[in-house]
Sequence to fold (120 residues):
Amino acid sequence: QVRVVESGGDLVQPGGSLRLSCAASGRLRSINVMTWSRQAPQKEREVVATITSGGGADLADSVKGRFTVSLDSPSRTGSLQMNDLQPEDSAVYYCSMDVVTTWATRRSYWGQGTQDTVSS
Fold:
């Protein structure tokens, strides 16, 4: 079993910053890809950032230039640095880890989500 946990969500004012963390634990050999998604009320789930173990990253146009994603596979941790936050960034943010388990199977695991609220 592999568990993924996000943390760092908070209430911030527009223009503020937050750093979300994602940690994976359990029976895994390595992390292939980390994906950050967000879900706001009455909106479709949106992928905001992905990063591979090799460091290749993709950011959604809506967050490009404001968000930075990083991944440290040996420590099984990643982060999403969010700057210049705006109300439209308010959402539950989810981290997903695509991993190779100790049984040599490849699976994706999702965290429980962390709430980010941007409001004045």
The radius of gyration is 14 Å. Residues 51 and 57 are 4 Å apart (CA to CA). DSSP finds no helices and eleven strands in the chain.
